[in-house]
Design a protein that fits this description.
Layout: E1 6-11, E2 16-21, H1 26-32, E3 51-56, H2 66-71, H3 74-78, E4 81-83, E5 94-99, E6 124-130, H4 131-134, H5 139-150, E7 155-156, H6 158-170, E8 174-180, E9 184-190, E10 198-204, E11 208-215, E12 221-228, H7 238-247, H8 251-274, E13 281-288, H9 290-297, E14 317-320, E15 335-338, H10 348-357, E16 366-370, E17 375-381, E18 384-390, E19 411-417, E20 424-428, E21 436-437, H11 439-451, E22 472-475, E23 478-485, E24 496-499, H12 500-524, E25 533-537, H13 539-543, H14 546-552, E26 563-565, H15 569-579, H16 581-593, E27 595-596, H17 605-612
Parallel strand pairs: 1-5, 7-9, 10-13, 13-15, 16-25, 18-27, 19-21, 25-26
Antiparallel strand pairs: 1-2, 3-4, 3-5, 6-8, 8-9, 10-11, 11-12, 14-15, 16-17, 17-18, 19-20, 22-23, 23-24
Helix pairs in contact: 7-8, 10-15, 10-16, 11-14, 12-17, 15-16
């Protein structure tokens, strides 16, 4: 039997070394080791973002593949850059690899939403029972005390029953019963512990996680913690993860476990910040898009891979924390509730956001948008709600853009272009040297390029500008690129620019969103003039300039004073559902009664989408 050749692979700058079999693909090795690297396709060779620099062993590698030749410049290949997804480790003694940094180590994670101001009425409540009143140490005596003292008729489940003897022995005449949904005693503790009743809410986004620790009695948020979703190791978007989950027998469990481990870390971090113990956490409320919810529950997302993209169940799911494959730092009887779903690509995050923005009980038409790779739109009025999912693509999340990146401390989020000189003033989120441009910056840059006439209504660069500028790069006499930041101004040793391809990506994204909004208004028989409030949720809405999105024609023509940003509305909705059982019943109603409209079957979609690809002429100098 031939002995397997092991190669010592050194990863810089961490200095981590691992022995890997020759022939192992570098992308999978890095994912298995938890080494973060950029990618949006899950290692399928489509995005070209998993660049690494081979610092030792380069000449032993196989020649660059067609995929690498497509995505890498000749000078990059000459300097030792390769794509991790295309490199297989050669049978050499050692290899040194440096993943390409985006120039910033901290992703800007939008976690805070609007304050929760609903009266606390949680699913989990605790009641102190003085045993000496009934004179009975048996289950029946406790149930009788709950009924007579609190008007609660319930039963005691098996786990609570096993806790009863010790609770009675140590309770010194008093035990505390934890009651779930007013029906089931799930835990019995010695003494009076009613003052310690916590829960957590978690927003599982495709790119980020946010966890909130909440006092269930008062509804007060005690702490919150955020981090990138670790599943990005297997692809930045939903479809990449669906593909990975379906590609191998154990892949679904890999995605579930890596997510649960990070959620466990965030919950623990919240407890440390709040100075409390995880054993007082009795419930968790989870929101996320349909795919993230299914991966959290360990359910195959195969149903989302093919048309008609139906969700497995519309109702919310309750699972015992102990049934999950990774132990969460919560009380051993804790329940985890995932909010309900509307459709395959309109998930629990949209339901939660819808709950959060209806606290003011809008009676006139209100439109909610959660912008992402799949932008969810919900149009509501006194006659009900209708929703759709727009395949807007990831342009406004910084993907498929030449120098695009997620919202980060070093990402450009605002741009201003002088109409006379075409000189650029840019702003980064935290004032750092720019490493790229995020979604709001992309919208701002395109709007400025329209206002100054650099591009016209068709989106094409103009070649007849009245003044020349070094910022416009040409190929064969045609303008193809506009430089926002020169190399010496950036943190990535290259110019940061907007290319013709980038403009087209923005046109496709904004056209999909505009078409979705327009078709929902058509279904309701209204126009943009009837929209009383247009609410933009999430990180894009936090940083985007209202005027910019109006200029590029992303939204219906709603007056700017009717456009509102609400931050992480999904996280807010999750906290509301956590602290209020009546509101939880409302989210079930929202999911049940919100109609889903499939844009692809509307005969007007293609025409509206094509027209929306154009930019409004009113802002162009054409």
């Amino acid at each position: 039997m031939t002995k397997q050749h092991l190669v010592s692979v050194l990863f810089q700058p961490s200095g981590r070394t691992v022995d890997a079999p020759a022939g192992t693909d570098l992308f999978s090795l890095m994912a298995d080791l938890g080494l973060k690297h950029s990618n949006t396709c899950g290692g399928k060779g489509k995005c070209g973002k998993c660049k690494v620099k081979i610092e030792a062993g380069l000449h032993e590698l196989a020649p660059p593949t067609e995929t690498e030749l497509k995505h890498l410049l000749p000078e990059e290949i000459g300097q030792g850059y390769r794509l991790a997804c295309a490199v297989r480790i050669p049978p050499v003694p050692s290899l040194s690899v440096r993943p390409l940094s985006t120039g910033s180590s901290t992703q800007k994670l939008q976690a805070e939403g609007t304050p929760v101001s609903v009266p606390p009425d949680p699913a989990v409540k605790k009641y102190a029972i003085p045993l000496n009143r009934s004179g009975s140490f048996e289950e029946e005596g406790i149930l009788s005390e709950l009924k007579e003292g609190y008007g609660i008729t319930c039963r005691m489940d098996y786990t609570a029953l096993t806790m009863l003897p010790e609770a009675i022995e140590r309770g010194k005449g008093c035990v505390t019963c934890t009651v779930y949904c007013g029906k089931t005693i799930t835990a019995v503790e010695p003494g009076d512990t009613t003052g310690k009743c916590l829960g957590f809410a978690a927003d599982i986004g495709t790119t980020k996680l946010a966890v909130y620790l909440v006092d269930l009695h008062s509804g007060e948020e005690l702490a919150f913690s955020t981090s990138p979703n670790p599943q990005v190791l297997y692809g930045d978007d939903v479809m990449s993860r669906i593909t990975f989950a379906m590609a191998g027998k154990g892949n679904l469990l890999v995605l579930q476990k890596i997510l649960l481990k990070e959620l466990a870390r965030l919950v623990s971090d919240c407890c440390v910040k709040a100075g409390t113990s995880p054993r007082w956490i009795y419930e968790g409320c989870i929101v996320g898009n349909t795919c993230m919810i299914q991966l959290f529950l360990g359910m195959s997302p195969r149903n989302l891979a093919f048309f008609p993209y139906k969700n497995l169940s519309r109702k919310g799911v309750t699972v015992k924390a102990g049934e999950l494959p990774v132990r969460l730092p919560v009380h051993r009887t804790a329940r985890i509730y995932t909010l309900p779903l509307i459709a395959g690509f309109v998930g629990a995050d949209t339901v939660a956001a819808r709950l959060a923005v209806t606290l003011n009980d809008f009676r006139e038409p209100q439109m909610l948008l959660d912008i992402g790779t799949n932008t969810e739109v919900v149009l509501s009025d006194r006659n009900g709600s209708i929703s759709c999912s727009c395949a807007s693509g990831p342009a406004f999340e910084g993907m498929h853009i030449t120098h695009g990146m997620k919202a980060d401390s070093s990402s450009i989020d605002r741009v201003s272009i002088d109409p006379e000189t075409f000189e650029v003033t840019f702003h980064t989120i935290d004032g750092a040297r720019p490493a790229g441009i995020c979604g709001s910056g992309i919208a701002s840059a395109i709007a400025e390029m329209l206002k100054t006439g650099i591009i016209g209504p068709t989106g094409r660069f103009r070649n007849d500008l009245p003044r020349s500028t070094e910022r416009i790069k040409t190929v064969n006499g045609k303008a193809v690129e506009f430089v926002l930041a020169w190399r010496h101004e950036t943190a990535v040793d290259t110019d940061i620019s907007i290319s013709q391809k980038d403009v087209v990506e923005v046109q496709k994204a904004k056209a999909a969103i505009y078409a979705g909004c327009t078709l929902l208004m058509k279904q309701k028989g209204i126009t943009a003039d009837h929209i009383e409030s247009l609410v933009v949720a999430g990180a894009f809405g936090q940083y985007v300039d209202k005027e910019s999105v109006q200029i590029i024609g992303m939204f219906p023509e709603v007056p700017p004073d009717r456009v509102h940003e609400v931050g992480n509305a999904a996280g807010t909705g999750a906290r509301i559902a956590l602290v209020s059982l009546p509101k939880r019943e409302e989210v079930e109603r929202i999911a049940r009664t919100t109609k889903y409209y499939e844009l692809a079957v509307d005969p007007d979609f293609t025409g509206i989408y094509a027209k929306a690809m154009l930019f409004p002429r009113s802002v162009s100098n054409d």
